[in-house]
Amino acid sequence: MIDLQVQQVYHSYFDGLVLNDINLSIKAGEMVGLLGPNGSGKTTLVKLIAGVLKPNKGKIMLNNTDLNRMNRMDIARNLAVVPQYFNSPFAFYSTDVVMLGRTPFINMFSGESAIDKQSVSEVIDMTGIKHLKNRRFDELSGGERQKVILAMALAQNPKMLLLDEPTVHLDINHQVEILELIKRLNLEQRLTIIATMHDFNLASLYFDRLILLKDGKVLVDGTPAQVLTKDRIQKTFSVTVKVEPHSVTGVPQIVIIPSGSNVKKQ
Asked: Is the pTM of this model over 0.90?
């Protein structure tokens, strides 16, 4: 189990400030969705939490240890990242890609151990990609690739899973399969989940806590009902919407209202 503290974090690139005084506390076992317009800092925040970037100012603490004082192997043994895009430079088979997740544990002299092979076998079963084991990664569909990448991350046996747009460019069936899987992992294994999301309705259905970013700042942090309000969405994204409760779960769902010329008359 792992707790995360983001303390007064600022980060900028050459073209300006991206994150401005971010303060977050995420407890072990939470499932958190990061929302916000393009350029709001969602992906940058994930990269900072993953240790890929270092904040210009402030601290990120994993279980009271400053991330900047942890080496890459220690970080990889605590958290795993599912990137938005992953391209294999070689003609790897799916099993080979999943085995890459065991890199932090593999002895460079003795190679893959029985434990490494067992871990890979278990996550292949867990993610339902057994039928993809002997297929080349570069020949898979988008949804199939995303499952293999997720399996690779899970092979690290992480305590925290970071996902950057896990459902981007996927058909609805694959979107649901991915989100159902990470929700099950969160509930059954108490795996802490942090994911950037664009689809408000899916985020509302699967995440108990949402954080809305705008202009590099946390605009609101709370339950889907607290975050996804009509006024807040309209002001943040400059669109006209209607917010209605889901007919089964009751969580808020967003209905986009097109401009007057496109509205069908009843």
From this structure: yes
Sign of CA dihedral 95, 96, 97, 99: positive
Tens digits of residue pLDDT in 86-99: 777 678 999 999 99
How many Cβ atoms are within 10 Å of 113's Cβ, its own excluded? 13
| Mean pLDDT over the full length of the chain | 91
d(CA 125, CA 131): 10
Name the residue ranges covered by the structural domains of the chain: 1-78+158-221, 90-156
Are β-strands 16-26 and 4-13 bridged in parallel, bridged antiparallel, or unpaired? Answer: antiparallel
Q: Compute the distance between CA of residue 110 and CA of residue 100 in angstroms, rounded to an integer.
A: 16
Mean of pLDDT values over 6-30? 92
Distance, in Å, from the CA atom of 214 to the CA atom of 41, rounded to the nearest integer, reads 8
User: What CA–CA distance (Å, rounded) separates 69 from 91?
Assistant: 36
User: What ranges in 77-210 are assigned the alpha helix state H?
Assistant: 94-99, 114-126, 142-154, 172-189, 200-206
Q: How do 65-66 and 57-62 pair as beta strands?
A: antiparallel
pLDDT at 237: 93
Residue 89's pLDDT is 65
Half-sphere exposure of 160 (CA within 13 A, CB side): 24
CATH architecture of 1-78+158-221: 3-Layer(aba) Sandwich (3.40)
